[in-house]
# Entry
Amino acid sequence: MENAGRAFLDAVRKSMRQMRAVIGATTIDPKLLTAAERLQYEGYLRREETNAAILTLSKNGIPIE
# Structure
């Protein structure tokens, strides 16, 4: 049961962006998040910012190395 639960949660986490888009929850109000959710959300925002910067550099011809 523990493995099945973990696999289910992993699958849900991987598809959260698509699920939010489907239900129309594309904006998140940080005031409504718990402390743990806020930390996760802030990490998500940092990763998105880093990914955008990397994509911009890549488009400008700068190698990832």
Summary: The helical segments are 2-14, 16-23, 35-59.
